[in-house]
Design the sequence.
């Protein structure tokens, strides 16, 4: 059914609502006027240019980049720390101290036998006198005779993976064999490593929280600015019967798009940075600097799951941008009527 | 359709600018709202358009006590009201066609269902050649006509017009008055706020006169 404004033009006065409150004044029948086939509603209700888009995209991109770098660094440190921990936890060091009147060589062999008898131990390697001397070389230099020094002998035992070793039992067994021996399961060192990793993760989470709060505040300001700039549009939309949801959705689309753009740029840049640092690390591989880095941060490469986490985080920040904008839109719309 | 009972309105802590308003606007009725400048015509129109609430009294619109309505319900009621404001309130980034079609867009209707209707109305109000023009390049009279077209396009049950012929020549003024009369005959209740005695003399209709905040009705 079509309205017939031309009827008014032609002086028709017998109009009716045809039973529909918002229906046509009268039916023109088959007399269809020539109208363009193409849709004419091409302008967005909220013009793109009225929203300070570039600045907001830049803010979201920077925030996403910082958040991604933080997350990536935390993931790298956590992965390296867990590698160190698993390596260290799979070894036990037994120290046999020299004692007057006892043969250190024989004591070492006795302790090694006792350790071998312990369930869960897969490999036992007593260090020889020469090997012990080479361990001390960095501190004492070369060409030193250890005969005059009470240097203890070290035995390294490897624990079967996944075995809960009975440390107390092993200690008993070792001290029974040689009273002057001790067992170190590196627990204190692992605990220190764990607390350092936890502190790093906590610091990372703190930085992430700050970045997200800063993003929310920036987006809220940008949304308020956009709403203020477009207040006449909001008022006209109210005049023609648009509800808050309709109006908010018109703005929301802009902010969702801006958030996604910022997220993709910031997250993408962070991923490229990690990919590039991986390449740089491989260039320096074999050099003293490269070895130091490798010792500290492993291969300095994010796993695929790390890249996935960064992508999810970028999407999350885009989502937070949209949520913050929506929240501000509704609170601002409550003030405009 | 509209009922005011003991309605009063004041801005902030100032004096009451509308006092003890008691009247009804029946469906299909036509009335002029007049009175000296500052008498409160625009404020009364704003009350009728639900863009403000009275300080006291009862306003009942389409069977609803507006004091009990939420924002969404008010937005729904506004879809049944058309308003023409003195300052036109056209969106400058949209063409004349898009401005007039805006109520349909807000209703979520597909453009193919109303395109012909919008074009016919634009031609009728003399803007057939200006459909693709942006408001900043329209004359005052053209803006006025576009604003009227936007207000009436969705066939409102109640049309409120604030000085709708203030910026047009007498010939076009008569033509626009005819549009309001025809719209009224098709079932829309019309309230035209105006100072223009000549316009009021052209059509025998109820007159609501605001004077010193009080309303006097001449049937």
Sequence:
């Amino acid at each position: 059914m079509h309205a017939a404004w031309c009827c008014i033009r032609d002086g028709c006065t017998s109009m009716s609502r045809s039973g529909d409150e918002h229906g046509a004044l009268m039916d023109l029948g088959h007399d269809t006027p020539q109208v363009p086939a193409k849709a004419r509603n091409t302008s967005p209700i909220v013009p793109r240019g009225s929203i300070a888009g570039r600045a907001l995209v830049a803010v979201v991109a920077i925030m996403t980049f910082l958040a991604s770098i933080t997350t990536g660094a935390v993931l790298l440190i956590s992965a390296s720390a867990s590698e160190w921990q698993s390596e260290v936890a799979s070894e036990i060091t037994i120290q046999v101290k020299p004692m007057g009147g006892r043969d250190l060589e024989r004591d070492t062999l006795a302790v090694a036998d006792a350790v071998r008898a312990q369930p869960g131990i897969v490999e036992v390697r007593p260090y020889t006198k020469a090997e012990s001397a080479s361990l001390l070389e960095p501190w004492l230099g070369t060409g030193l005779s250890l005969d005059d020094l009470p240097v203890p002998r070290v035995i390294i035992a490897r624990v079967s993976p996944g075995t809960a070793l009975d440390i107390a039992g092993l200690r008993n067994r070792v001290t029974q064999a040689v009273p002057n021996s001790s067992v170190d399961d590196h627990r204190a060192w692992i605990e220190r490593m764990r607390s350092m990793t936890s502190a790093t993760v906590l610091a990372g989470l703190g930085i992430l929280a700050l970045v997200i709060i800063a993003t929310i505040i920036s987006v809220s300001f940008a949304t308020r600015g956009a709403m203020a700039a477009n207040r006449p549009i909001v008022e006209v939309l109210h005049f023609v019967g648009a509800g808050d949801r309709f109006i908010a959705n018109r703005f929301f689309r802009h902010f969702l798009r801006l958030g996604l753009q910022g997220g993709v740029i910031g997250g993408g840049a962070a991923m490229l940075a990690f990919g590039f640092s991986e390449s740089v690390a491989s260039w320096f591989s074999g050099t003293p600097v490269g070895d130091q880095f490798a010792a500290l941060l492993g291969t300095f490469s994010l796993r695929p799951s790390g890249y996935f986490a960064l992508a999810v985080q970028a999407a999350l920040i885009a989502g937070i941008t949209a949520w913050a904008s929506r929240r501000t839109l509704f609170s601002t719309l409550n003030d405009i009527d | 359709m509209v009922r005011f009972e003991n309605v009063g309105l004041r801005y902030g802590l100032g004096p009451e600018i509308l006092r003890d308003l008691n009247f009804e606007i029946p469906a299909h009725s036509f009335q002029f709202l007049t009175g000296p400048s500052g008498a409160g015509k625009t404020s009364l129109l704003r009350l009728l358009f639900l863009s403000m609430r009275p300080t006291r009294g009862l306003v009942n619109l389409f069977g609803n006590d507006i004091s009990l309505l939420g924002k969404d319900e008010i937005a729904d009621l506004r879809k049944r009201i058309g308003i023409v404001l003195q300052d036109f309130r056209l969106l400058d980034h949209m063409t004349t066609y898009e401005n007039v079609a805006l109520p349909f867009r807000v209703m979520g209707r597909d453009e193919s269902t109303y395109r012909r209707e919008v074009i016919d109305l634009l031609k009728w109000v003399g803007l057939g050649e200006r459909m693709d023009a942006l408001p900043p390049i329209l004359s005052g009279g053209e803006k006025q006509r576009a604003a009227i077209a936007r207000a009436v396009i969705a066939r409102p049950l109640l049309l409120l017009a604030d000085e709708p012929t203030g910026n047009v020549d007498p010939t076009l003024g008569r033509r626009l008055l005819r549009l309001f009369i025809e719209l009224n005959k098709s079932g829309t209740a019309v309230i035209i706020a105006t100072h223009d005695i000549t316009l009021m003399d052209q059509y025998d209709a109820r007159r609501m006169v605001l004077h010193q905040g009080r309303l006097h009705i001449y049937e």
User: Anything to note?
Assistant: Helices of chain B lie at 41-48, 71-78, 96-107, 115-124, 140-152, 170-185, 197-201.
